Amino acid sequence: MQKFSITIPMFSVKHHGGTRILLQLANSLVEKGHNVIILTPEDKYAPIYPVDKRIQIKFTSRVGEEKIFYFKTLIEFIFKIPKVDFILANFFPTFYPSLLAEKIGKGKLIYFPQGIGETYPSFKGIASLFIKTIETFSFKFKVPIVTTSQYQRESVLKLNKNAFFKKIPFGLLENTFYPEFKLDDNKNKKKLLYFARKEKIKGLDDFLEALNILIKKNLKFELWLISREKEILSKFDYSKEKIKIKTFSSLDDKELRRIYSQVYLLVNSSWVEGFCLPVLEAMACGTPSVMTDSGGPKEYAIHNYNCLIVPPKRPDLLAKAIQKLLLDEQLREKLTTNGLESAKKYKFSKFAEEFERFLLDFK
Asked: Which residue, among 20, 26, 8, has the nearest Cα to 48 in the 3D structure?
């Protein structure tokens, strides 16, 4: 098999789901003998996910806490991307320096946008319009695009009906997510799991409103929160309502599997998701989800078959679905069984093989 070299410019290598996907892909490619380079700011490299030692890590200068300094990073990307076979841009800000690097002969650009339309809703006014415009414009170029869901595919086609792309559904690492415990039958200890993120598009306020509805109905449950953003945890002050809350921050896959396996259900309130790994991971661990119709997850999520799906921005319906699942043991058992079967179809090894084959077609 032909070998190739690839550079992945990244704003940060920390804890986000997109980072995880890129690192798993990088690990797989280097395992197969390809040369992989990750380019990132020096002070933004703090991975919590495994990074193969054979991956070359190259740094741009430090960014600091001011986001405006990322513009300096974008310029550095153009010149610090080494000459390789491929440049993999996974986010519209890194797309443009990667495009310029391609134009000066540093490698063929492949666009792998993991989220489309997820950034600009968190801004207001002119800033939101500007971000939306530059993201939309990034899909106007004749560049090969990889998407992970039918929703992303349709989103790209709306922006450029002539776009050339390949849909490669993501998957789970083998022997990583599976049921580890039997569910606690004590109905007073049913645990709701929620990934708390401050971005507006993640629907945090919707979830908080749904929680208030559930509390007023005197439903009994514990709340387990996964969040690395301590500033938003203050919003979850339910001591007066005597709701027990347990929080988690940085977790490896083993710890995450144990949490998924112990909770009664996962709640996702996002407005838009490109794929949404947590819902699929939870399914693989025997935990069903109550989720919003955020687009990407419908690649594997089917309402009333392996999860419950409600419209986004409707906390009343979100609360109603959570209540339904909390009280209906037979429904939960059905969703769990079907979720386990659904998750088996999505394997990371298949995703990595198809991605590698896609790249080799351009070699």
From this structure: 20
User: How many whole angstroms separate alpha carbon 314 and alpha carbon 190?
Assistant: 23
The Cα–Cα gap between 191 and 26 comes to 35
Torsion of CA 17, 22, 26, 28, to 10 degrees: 60
Distance from C-alpha of 130 to C-alpha of 159, rounded to nearest angstrom? 16
Environment class of 134 (CB within 10 Å of its CB; exposed 0-12, middle 13-18, buried 19+): middle
pLDDT band at 182 (very low <50, low <70, confident <90, very high): low
**Residue type (1 letter), 18:** G
Could you give the angle at the alpha carbon of 132 between the alpha carbons of 131 and 136, nearest 5°? 120
Q: Which of 117, 251, 265, 241 is nearest to 183 (CA)?
A: 265
Token pair, residue 259, equals 């949490």
Is the CB of residue 63 less than 8 Å from the CB of residue 46? Answer: no
Closest CA to 266 of 185, 187, 304, 321: 321
Report d(CA 133, CA 295) in Å as an integer. Answer: 21
> Percent of the chain scored above 90 by pLDDT?
68
Which tokens in the block code for residue 207? 């979830």
pLDDT in tens, 38-56: 999 999 998 888 899 999 9
Would you state the structure tokens that stand for residue 343, as one six-digit string?
């998750």
Domains of the chain: 5-171+347-360 (3.40.50.2000), 187-343 (3.40.50.2000)
Q: What is the pTM of this model?
A: 0.91
Distance CA(218)–CA(241), nearest Å, equals 9
